[in-house]
From TrEMBL:
InterPro entries: Choice_anch_Q_dom (IPR059226), PbH1 (IPR006626), Pectin_lyas_fold (IPR012334), Pectin_lyase_fold/virulence (IPR011050). Residues 793-802 have a biased composition (Basic and acidic residues). Residues 595-604 have a biased composition (Gly residues). NCBIfam families: choice_anch_Q. Residues 325-370, 572-604, 738-779, 793-849 are annotated as: Disordered. Transmembrane segments: none annotated. Residues 357-367, 574-594 have a biased composition (Low complexity). This is Right-handed parallel beta-helix repeat-containing protein. SMART domains: PbH1 (SM00710).
Length: 849
């Protein structure tokens, strides 16, 4: 070009050259003079021949700009129009000043401030800036059927007006193909949707290594916004590869998707940074209204959403949309209400091999929160991921790491760590109607505050089902109840092959605590697990390992060791109306309770509940006051069968067992090697309790510091060889006993001797240590068949009786133990090593006695 004038008749002018090129069938290149500005000044309307108004392209034309500028501010029209069948390539040119307010010239009224593309448009290494359109596409509008390729180009400071005002920089209408690579989309504004770029419901659009930054969309509706990018409802697909989406805003009254809004379309993002975006309603980084959203290798960080309502600081899914997040980081995002990092609606969200950390949700209600993730009734799957350092800091905020409001939550092979909540569920909160599965994972060092502060690692509100397997729950803290796990009155919780270790509950009330687990009236089942070194350290904290308040607790194949409480139940506390607690095949060892008052080192029953203990080793537990091993309440019912109580201690009375006036039955069990400073090292019964309330059948109570204190009834039992006396109180007899010479039962069938010829406590077959009498011991055939037992074998599982009458005590001397009779020692056979990523812990101690 030799002139910068705007003259359709001059082939040396830009307009004239385009008119000439449109008139032939060849591909033409128009080269502009470097650094020059080509001002369009010939206004006009209603024609598509480039004679007036915008520059119409109807053939194959390349404009090589050499850094020149095309300025359309003088024509009140867009700068360029590519007609259907036309092809335009812009290279190294700046297009500015285009205004498609009324678009007086040609088709596409009010669209495409710089370029309206109805054919094929290629833009390379150029700048489209300062253009505007009334309807859509402040810089570029691509019509249905068009193809657009933009490379290394900056789309900056363009705007789309209010009719409706979509696509501040770029807008695609209908079916079309768009590829944008390199360059920037920045500082653009749209009155409604897509402050930067808007893709249609029938379009295919790909952005590669593009910086989308500082754009604004101001639509007031919940489905409007998309400060950076917008995908319309339909079959369209928006793909973002690499690059960044940063600092964009959806500032309408209910504006959503500060960075990106996917409205019922398909969004695919790979290797992109989405950071520092904001919205008013939801989805500070991304809002997806239904549709499909896939994020791979994405950095979703430091986004925020406001208070209307303010959900999903990083990503928000409305309705039944599906989302997949893999290999991504979701960090530092904030939500005023729920889901600081991610918020899932009624669809399915899968988070795989990702990090969700340092996010915050600040909703004040009990069902607000979910600092890291929030699931609103849908299905949330977290696999191989880390959820850490997230916070639910509202007045009653719950679920520091994850909150599932109903729906289904699956956490597999993941780490949930260092999260915190004010109300409940420092790590995870699940509410009414939810189903939660946690497998092969670690829940550790999570914390919940003092409002009320329940469930340091996990809390269930209302009815729900929880399954925890192969998981380490460690070093979590609750201000009140359930340092590790907390189950509701209507809940069903199952824990298997897991380790609950080093958790702390600090509630001060007598029914507060449960350092490891707390059951608030629901059903809690624990199997093949380890519950160790947990504590209830409040002023009257109870249940260092487990606290069951009015619910059903079943524990099998589990180690409950080295737990501590202040008031009662160092290992286990059962309390509340009509609680039911069952321990079977359990190691209850080295638990302790303190001095307020300090009852039931191993297990304590408060109130009118029912406790059964079977095939259990109650070993080396300690109580400051009463019941080093087991403590039964005045209204309680406790049944102990096939169990060995050894090495338990108390500074008061009842080293192994204490009955405070309720019903205590001990059957086919061994009580040995226990100590009580105040007497009754084997068993102590509260003063004034009827002898018929405490019944020992086929029990060997021997080799303790002292025997029995208080009134009790024995049958087919051994009560002798205790160091400081065998009985202090009335001993009623059912017959068939072998007792010390200091014991007077008044029953002729009882044998008095100070040497029952018992072997040392040890492995005599069966799962637990026992005393095996000598073949000529006085216990042999000393029992009576008329004495009813709850067990039809001896303690080892061997045949009983052998001969005409059963032996007295726990062991049938003449019974032979076959290999098939031997069973594994009680407790967690796996040694407390959960599967998956959980950190192994030391195995169970030896039980040789």
């Amino acid at each position: 070009m030799t002139t910068t004038t705007d003259d359709a008749a001059d082939p040396e002018a830009l307009r004239g050259a385009i008119v000439a090129a449109n008139g032939n069938d060849e591909a033409d290149t128009i080269t502009l003079e470097a650094g020059q500005t080509y001002a369009l000044t010939v206004g006009g309307a209603g024609e598509n021949a480039a004679a007036t108004g915008d520059l119409d392209i109807t053939s194959d034309i390349t404009i090589d700009g050499n850094g020149a500028t095309i300025d359309a501010s003088g024509i009140d029209d867009r700068a360029l129009h590519v007609a259907a069948g036309g092809s335009l390539t812009l290279v190294n040119v700046t297009v500015t000043g285009g205004d498609a307010a009324d678009a007086p010239s040609g088709d596409g009224g009010g669209s495409g401030g710089a370029v309206l593309n109805g054919g094929t448009l290629t833009v390379e290494d150029s700048t489209l800036t300062g253009n505007s359109a009334l309807r859509a596409g402040g810089a570029v509008e691509a019509s249905a059927g068009s193809t657009t390729t933009i490379t290394g180009t900056d789309l900056t400071d363009n705007s789309a007006g209010d009719a409706p005002g979509n696509g501040g920089a770029f807008h695609l209408t209908g079916a079309g193909t768009v590829a944008i690579s390199g360059g920037t989309v920045s500082g653009n504004t749209a009155t409604a949707e897509g402050g930067g770029v808007w893709n249609s419901g029938a379009g295919t659009m790909t952005l590669t290594d593009v910086e989308v930054t500082g754009n604004t969309a101001s639509g007031a509706e919940a489905t409007q916004g998309g400060g950076g990018l917008f995908q319309e409802a339909g079959e369209g697909t928006l793909t973002v590869n690499g690059g960044s989406v940063t600092g964009n805003v959806a500032d309408g009254a209910a504006g959503s998707g500060g960075g990106i809004l996917n409205d019922q379309g398909t969004l695919v993002v790979d290797g992109t940074t989405i950071s520092g975006n904001t919205s008013v309603r939801a989805g500070g980084g991304i809002e997806a209204n239904v549709g499909s959203t896939t994020l791979t290798g994405v950095d979703l960080s430091d986004n925020s959403t406001g208070s209307s309502p303010g959900n999903g600081g990083g990503l928000h899914i409305t309705g039944a949309g599906d989302a997949s997040i893999s290999g991504s980081t979701v960090t530092g995002n904030e939500a005023a209400l729920e889901g600081g990092g991610l918020w899932n609606g009624s669809g399915t969200m899968t988070v795989t091999d990702s990090e969700v950390s340092g996010n915050t949700a600040s909703g004040a209600a009990a069902d607000d929160g979910g600092g890291g993730l929030f699931n609103n009734g849908g299905t949330l799957v977290v696999e191989g991921s880390t959820v850490s350092d997230n916070v639910a800091d509202g007045d009653a905020g719950s679920g520091g790491g994850i909150l599932t409001l109903g729906g289904s939550l699956e956490v597999t092979g993941s780490l949930v760590q260092d999260n915190s909540a004010v109300r409940a569920g420092g790590g995870i909160e699940a509410t009414e109607g939810s189903t939660t599965t946690i497998a092969d994972s670690r829940l550790q060092s999570n914390e919940t505050g003092a409002a009320p502060g329940n469930g340091g690692a996990f809390h269930l509100t209302g009815s729900g089902t929880v399954d925890v397997t192969g998981t380490l729950v460690a070093s979590n803290v609750a201000a009140n109840e359930g340092g590790g796990l907390w189950n509701s009155a209507a809940g069903t919780m199952t824990v298997s092959n897991s380790t609950i270790s080093g958790n702390l509950a600090s509630g001060d009330d007598a029914d507060s605590g449960g350092g490891g687990l707390y059951n608030d009236g629901g059903t809690l089942t624990v199997s093949d697990s380890t519950i160790e070194t947990n504590a209830a350290d409040g002023a009257s904290g109870s249940g260092g390992g487990l606290l069951n308040v009015g619910g059903t607790l079943e524990v099998t194949g589990t180690d409950i060791v080295e737990n501590v409480s202040v008031r009662a139940g160092g290992g286990v506390e059962a309390a509340g109306e009509s609680s039911s607690t069952s321990l079977s095949d359990v190691l209850l060892s080295q638990n302790s309770t303190g001095g307020n008052p300090g009852n039931g080192g191993g297990l304590h029953l408060t109130g009118n509940g029912d406790v059964t203990v079977d095939l259990t080793l109650v070993e080396e537990n300690d109580a400051t006051n009463e019941g080093g091993g087991l403590w039964n309440s005045a209204a309680g019912t406790m049944t102990v069968t096939r169990t060995t109580l050894v090495g338990n201690t108390t500074d008061g009375i009842g080293g192994a067992l204490y009955n405070d006036g309720g019903t205590l039955t001990v059957d086919t069990s061994t009580v040995s090697g226990n100590a009580a400073a105040g007497g009754g090292a084997g068993v102590a019964v509260a003063e004034g309790t009827d002898a018929g309330a405490t019944i020992l059948v086929h029990v060997t109570l021997a080799a303790n510091d002292s025997g029995a204190l208080g009134d009790l009834t024995i049958g087919n039992s051994v009560l002798t060889m205790n160091e400081d006396g065998n009985a202090d109180g009335t001993v009623a007899s059912l017959g068939g006993n072998v007792v010390g010479t200091d014991v007077s039962t008044g029953e002729s069938s009882d044998v008095q001797t100070d040497d029952a010829m018992l072997g040392e406590l040890g492995d005599n077959g069966g799962p637990l240590p026992t005393h095996l009498p000598a073949d000529d011991s006085p216990v042999v055939d000393a029992g009576l068949a008329s004495v009813e037992s709850l067990v039809d074998t001896d303690q080892r599982g061997a045949e009983r009786p052998v001969g005409d009458a059963p032996d007295a005590g726990a062991v049938e001397v003449a019974a032979e133990m076959d290999d098939d009779d031997d069973v594994t020692p009680p407790g967690n056979d796996a040694g407390g090593n959960p599967a998956g990523p959980a950190t192994p812990v030391p195995g169970q101690p030896s039980y040789t006695g």
